[in-house]
Write a structure and sequence with these properties.
Elements (H helix, E strand, L loop, with lengths): L2 E10 L3 H13 L5 E4 L42 E4 L7 H4 L2 H17 L11 H8 L4 E2 L3 E4 L2 H16 L3 E3 L2 E6 L5 E6 L2 E12 L6 H10 L4 E2 L3 E10 L4 H7 L4 E4 L6 E8 L3 E7 L2 E7 L10 E10 L8 H15 L5 E4 H6 L5 H6 L9 E2 L8 H17 L9 E9 L3 E2 L1 E2 L2 E2 L5 E3 L10 H18 L1
Helix pairs in contact: 1-12, 3-12
The protein binds flavin-adenine dinucleotide (FAD).
């Protein structure tokens, strides 16, 4: 099909980064013609069959409702909004830290205008001291717990507000962007369409990172590798971490391992939550959720325990490395994700259905009992075991025999493209932001990044 429409701005991806960018552009310049192209469904039609209770295991839907669709990967997230520049992305490396914080607060105000809560958990120095006494390092932040259900409502209101001012085309997968003409090719219902924009913004998130990296390579845009985080999701009775979570909501603790000096992070804590699967372009990994409503809470808390690796020359495919490890875990579990009791792992035994049932922690995800040591590299596994043992010193019970470890959880961050003020070098008018471009890895920084890019575009006009 030929060129159909021209816009002032074409935004690829309807996650929080793309939404905030569209919001700022249309708020400051109501005359601007802005379109969001989103490969997933409208928010109200995003239904993960596991969350609706239709199935107990991931059936690898063609479009993963957890990762794709309006509101992006954050839509069913627990909605922890971190008001900090200490973690959650790398924006402070490319611009002034105070400005980043200012934008995080601006994005928060927009969310509050659309119904997000105002309550904030404040940092706690006593707990930080306790961690330090055990050579553990707690990252401090002000944090809001939006809650999976309340966050969903806020995003619905934000999107419906935006629909009054801009165009949103869902189930539209962008397959190419012509670097010189900024023509954007997308496929909807098996039909190819082409539109163009004065500016084009890649806000494709982690799910779109492979497409974006390939596009950069094909168009001669240099990329800089990012770290890759590999590990497990830990699930245990909620009482074990209650003394932390009741005071700061989310403990984020770093252990520098004694043998390798690697950083292993405990984060993405979900009190009385559920472990869930994530379908990242055909590979199943794990993650966690928690709900605000009492009746949807479980008896367990869960958190990610991930070990960071930065590859240097000659290897430059960290994302593929993580995907291969996760794919191996899928392979040995018959196409799903694994769960193993910590005690079984330490005893060198596979967890079986029988052993899992004999345990005292009831899994919230129907994963396949197995043996993580068969798919996780030694280095990462050593780091995880050491960190569990150290966390047990500040939260006794963490290293109990029945503590459940789900694998593999990995967070891979896109390689950062060469940019000047988020405009791709050598691709005039084409911008990149958020998780898909390796600048962020959290709702708050991705939201801030959307506003930042919009302001840069507005200031240049
Ligand atoms: C289960 C889960 C829980 C999380 N919990 C939290 C949390 O509590 N707190 C926190 O700070 N962060 C959390 N995160 C991370 C957070 O959701 C992300 O950091 C954030 O959503 C990134 O925003 P983004 O706009 O950059 O990308 P995304 O939100 O990933 O949005 C990108 C969008 O682009 C679309 N897209 C991709 N490729 C194309 C294409 N070719 N054509 C058209 N559209 C395309 C995708 O479908 C997607 O909707 C969680 C993530 C997950 C998956």
């Amino acid at each position: 099909m030929g060129l159909t429409k021209h816009y002032d701005a074409v935004i690829i991806g309807g996650g929080i980064g793309g939404l905030m960018c569209a919001y700022r552009l249309s708020e400051r310049r109501p005359d601007m013609k802005v379109v969001i192209l989103e490969r997933g469904k409208d928010l109200e039609n995003r239904k993960c069959p596991i969350l609706t209770g239709a199935v107990s295991k991931c059936i690898k839907c063609k479009s993963c409702a957890i990762m794709e669709g309006m509101a992006g990967a954050g839509a069913f997230s627990d909605g922890k909004y971190n008001i900090t520049t200490e973690y959650g992305g790398w924006l402070p490396r490319v611009m002034d830290e105070k400005k980043v914080m200012d934008y995080i607060l601006q994005a928060d105000s927009i969310l509050v205008e659309h119904g997000a809560q105002k309550e904030v958990y404040e940092p706690d120095n006593e707990l930080k001291t306790l961690c330090l006494q055990h050579d553990l390092h707690m990252q401090q932040a002000r944090v809001k717990h939006l809650g999976t259900d309340a966050n969903f409502g806020t995003m619905l209101r934000l999107i419906s507000d935006l629909k009054q001012r801009i165009e949103i085309i869902t189930e539209a997968t962008v397959t190419d962007v012509k670097k010189d003409t900024r023509e954007v090719v997308y496929v909807k219902k098996n039909e190819e369409h082409i539109i163009s924009g004065d500016v084009v913004i890649f806000a494709v998130g982690r799910i779109g990172n492979r497409m974006f990296e390939k596009w950069c390579d094909n168009n001669g845009i240099l990329r800089h590798n990012n770290q890759v985080d590999i590990g497990v999701r830990v699930e245990l009775p909620y009482e074990v971490w209650k003394h932390f979570s009741s005071r700061i909501y989310e403990p984020k603790i770093i252990n520098r391992s004694s043998h390798y000096a690697d950083r292993t992070r405990m984060f993405c804590f979900n009190e009385r939550g559920h472990v869930v699967t994530e379908n990242s372009d055909g590979v199943l990994t794990v993650n966690g959720h928690s709900y605000k409503e009492e009746e949807r809470k479980s008896a367990n808390s869960n958190f990610a325990l991930l070990c960071s690796t930065n590859f240097t020359e000659p290897f430059n495919e960290p994302v593929e490395y993580a995907r291969d490890i996760a794919a191996l875990a899928n392979k040995i579990s018959g196409g799903f994700v694994l769960v193993q009791r910590y005690g079984d792992l330490m005893a060198g035994k596979r967890t079986t259905e029988h052993r899992l049932k004999a345990g005292t922690v009831r899994p919230t995800l129907d994963a396949v009992p197995g043996d993580l040591s068969l798919c996780m590299p030694k280095r990462q596994l050593d780091n995880i075991v050491e960190t569990i043992q150290k966390l047990d010193e500040i939260a006794p019970g963490t290293a109990n025999y029945d503590t459940l470890l789900y694998g593999v959880e990995c967070k891979y961050y896109s390689a950062r493209p060469d940019v000047t003020d988020f405009e791709l070098n050598d691709a005039k008018g084409i911008y990149a932001l958020g998780d898909g471009a390796g600048f962020t890895r959290s709702l708050s920084q991705a939201a801030a990044n959307g506003l930042i890019v919009a302001d840069i575009i507005l200031n240049r006009q």
